[in-house]
Prior knowledge:
The relative contact order is 0.17. 87% of the residues lie in helices and 0% in strands. The longest helix has 57 residues, at 3-59. The chain is mainly alpha-helical and 181 residues long.
Amino acid sequence: xxxxxxxxxxxxxxxxxxxxxxxxxxxxxxxxxxxxxxxxxxxxxxxxxxxxxxxxxxxxxxxxxxxxxxxxxxxxxxxxxxxxxxxxxxxxxxxxxxxxxxxxxxxxxxxxxxxxxxxxxxxxxxxxxxxxxxxxxxxxxxxxxxxxxxxxxxxxxxxxxxxxxxxxxxxxxxxxxxxxx
Length: 181
């Protein structure tokens, strides 16, 4: 297995498991979280969980300057930028237009953080495209599964698919970013 393949597989499996954990809180505790934490508090909690759980797996792909534990800072900033772009676009436009715009905005912002951090700003368009495709597949395939299965099993399936595709995309970008240094 090549380093690139290993990175992508690690990202897909590890971030898939992290995402499953996050989506389990949605499947089984969303109403409680909205009531107790408010919708904004629930979203902040979910973003924090993605950063904490996903950062460990994705950080194992990175070498040198951004190796764990420093990777948490980078990934936290990248995922926070992604979340702000995604949530901002979705709640501004709503529906399908908001979902697509959110996928694009979130992907570009995450790519921008990674491109700057790894000194590969010339790869911004490539990183954005990879993350947009991975993120869109992650979100829309997962959403379709959720719609088809419904209930907790649908939400958990969405979590696995979302994490696997987005994790693979992030891992691929991290692998490429390190090659371009």
